[in-house]
Amino acid sequence: MHGRERELERLGSLLAGARDGLGGTAVVSGGIGSGRTTVLGAVAARAGSTGMQVLRACAAPAEREFARRVVHQLVDPLLPGGRTEGDLPVGAEDAALADPVGLLDRTTAPGSPLVVLVDDLQWADDPSLDWLVELALSSHERPVALVCSVLAGDRGADRRSVRRLLATARDIRLHPLSDRATTAVVEEWIGAGSAPGTAGMFHAASLGNPMVLTQLLSEAAASGDDTAARTPVGALRPPALLERFARAVRDLDDEALRYLRSVVVLDEDGDAGTIRRLSGLDAAAARTARARLVDAGLLLDRDPPGPSHPAVADVALGPTDRCTVHAEAARLLHEVGRPPAEVAGHLLACTTPLERWAVHTLRTAASLCLAEDPVGGGRTAADHLRRVLLDGDLSPAERGSVLADLAAAESGYAPTIATRHVAQALPLLDGPRARARAIAALPVGAVVTAPAEVRDAVRQADADPATAGDRPLALRIRTRRHRLDEQTPEGLEAGCDRLQEVLADPDAELSTSAGQELITVLLHGAALSGRVPAASVAGLGARLLRIVPAHELDPTGALPELLGLALVAADRAGSLAHRLAVQQGAAAGAGRSADLHALLALARGREVRLAPRDPDAPVTPLAVALTATAVVKEIRIRGTDTDTDLARPRLPERAMHRLRRSGAASAAGDLPLALECLLDAGRHLDHLGWRNPAVFPWRGRAALLAARLGEVGTARDLAETELSLATSWGAPAALGRALRVRAELAEGPERLRLLRSASAVLADSEDGAEIDRVTVALEHCPDAVPRPGAAGGGSVPPRPVPRPVLAPRPAAGAPAASAEAPLGAAVAARAGSSRSTGTGAGRLTAGEQEAVALVRAGASNQQIAQQLRVSRRAVEKRLTSAYRKLGIGGRGDLGPG
């Protein structure tokens, strides 16, 4: 009995008085679940332990119409022969009712103290109540203690006989348990070693109500969570608790029930006047109903009042009643001038047809949601607008307008659905300006994959002079036109020309959200084509990143994806990566968000694991760039390669498919197929105009594959083209990588010169992995190397880093080697391996080659991990794999560098 010590002490003094011949009456009162029955049980146990005779009865609502049911429960055990089911001893009722005190004198031992306990007195029948009143009036002169319990707030407690008995009794009110008492109960259930804060969670959920507390503890224990540390205690709804509250609600009178339902429906929107008006009660009746519900433990005594537990709200109304009361609440709140958001919440909770005022309220609330919270407000706004579409009486033009608003709300989190709603809205709208506004709601990231009729509408709206007078609207239309034209070289060229104009005076566009959106798309187009210098793209992108609102950097949205690709191409991805890490806690989500985080990491030389790609996901330029980068860096792309993309007519899907096939073929050792697929992908990308080697570095990879296969001319042409494009673009990472690839195909001083140039260029790069590759290549590049068969016929020392161009084509049926395996041959030669380069070292991955080269230079595993910016475990795995492929026992077999 934690927390009930004071009440039991008062009842103990009543028992002591009865033992001394001076009894009395006490009433234990409290709301639902306050522990009245438990207290009476404790009194019975204490009385029995002291030798007192105990008589107990419990009233019930179903027995209220049966006369003297409580009396019979008390006196029948005292009568000679007891009582049989359905058959009372003759004269028992008359004797008991005529003289209750005399009956007790005749049926109990003389002078023996007696305790009479009656639970739930409010449900007792009237004759039994009269009998108990007579007993109470005489108990103070006799060794009789009468203890009853009453449910406070119950309408049965207002009967005259109950009030007469209460007037003669000590009132013992049961209050909620304290924090300390709750903690003691919780520790009894789950042990004293529970997680910190567990007792506090249960106290907050139960508000100290013993019944609620024990039901929650029982439910938590049944769920298998013995500490409740991971259980959402406030969300638990034990069935027994719901049933108890439902029974209490059924017993309420009409006025109290209407008041309770009004409180539940209005929730935080209800003040005393609004609750009274919704319940239809006058001021006095409302005060009485509130006091009764508070006493019963169904309402909290606060302003505004609220349910004592969420389970009360769950059982207070059925589905039909809930809908009706919410509809009435919406109208009432609208009439008294409450904010649209409050009214809209009630309109969403019902399914009645919407009148004109309700349609206007929901649309206004949706607009306010987006204005106040552009990120999280979209879903709420969409809920409001869907309700309008479902139950509003709308004309075709109004329906089109609502669909356009719905698309604007959905564009941030469901661009594909938003695009579909724009397509549905366009035929319903009247006039070019209305259609232009609908097109402006089209998500920028979904323009390219929109239906053909939507793409045509974008082009028509861009050419229509009707939008010229509204500059922000015209800018948004032009932005979507440029995004649409990123699929052709001519469209990309037009976008780059527009970007050059913006670069001359960027402040005009940076000052508006529509202008910022346009700049983002133009920078993205420039990154695809490489037609505008990287320095200009990086500078404008950095300015845009500094001023863009935080909510627009949701990584699942279009702006981070488009701007991210531009900054990656310009070798300035760190600023966006840091901003996203701070804002989103560095958590990469799924789909486009995961692609963005992966590309940002690769651009800074970090190791990543690519998640399997959803075959139904749209193929974006960022996804293609990520795949191309992964293929070049020989990163495994998980997931089964299928021909799904080949069934799609768009070139990006075909390019993606061929890139993935190239990566899979290279991993399997099929270098001819890998080169063929890579060249196919490159042709698709060139046809699109996506020629920037910073994000589509396929030419360098193809050059090394061709060199490995002995196609020297093809290799040099690809490398020269890559170098020319990288020089034109000017980003350090792209140029340094192109110089390194060109150096792999060169000899002697030319090779050294190119590597030194790459090292100098990469000094300003964020790509740490590319810097490490060039550093390793420089460490193993002598100042000059004579050609085989040179004049003088002297012996030619083995080159530490053999060039792929000199490697022979693998024999038919022989396993092919990696395209970037120059270090492997030197390692095999130094180790005296009996295996050929083609069967052992030639299969080393780029990471394994780097690790082996550093081992030969004398570096420890920890130093290698720091140099390559990977974990020590990753270094150990690379070296173990390399030793196995080389057929050696460990680093001692590699020889000195």
Please give a structural write-up.
The chain has 897 residues and is mostly helical. The strands form 2 sheets. The chain has a 5-stranded parallel sheet, sandwiched between helices. Strands 6-7 form a two-stranded antiparallel sheet. Helix 6 (126-139) links the parallel strand 3 and strand 4. Helix 36 (712-729) runs antiparallel to helix 37. The longest helix has 18 residues, at 671-688. It is elongated, with a radius of gyration of 41 Å. The two termini are 80 Å apart.
List keywords for this structure.
897 residues; mainly alpha; five-stranded parallel sheet; two-stranded antiparallel sheet; 43 helices; 58% helix; elongated
Which ranges are low-confidence, i.e. pLDDT below 50, for 5 or more consecutive residues?
83-90, 225-229, 585-590, 784-841
Q: Could you tell me the mean pLDDT?
A: 84
Q: Determine the N-to-C terminus distance.
A: 80 Å
For the largest sheet, list the strands in their spatial order: 2-3-4-1-5
Strand proportion: under 5%
Largest sheet: 5 strands, parallel
Give the beta-strand count: 7
Q: Which class of secondary structure composition applies to the elements?
A: mainly alpha
Question: How many helices does DSSP assign?
Answer: 43
Round the Cα radius of gyration to an integer and report it. 41 Å
Question: What is the 3D shape?
Answer: elongated
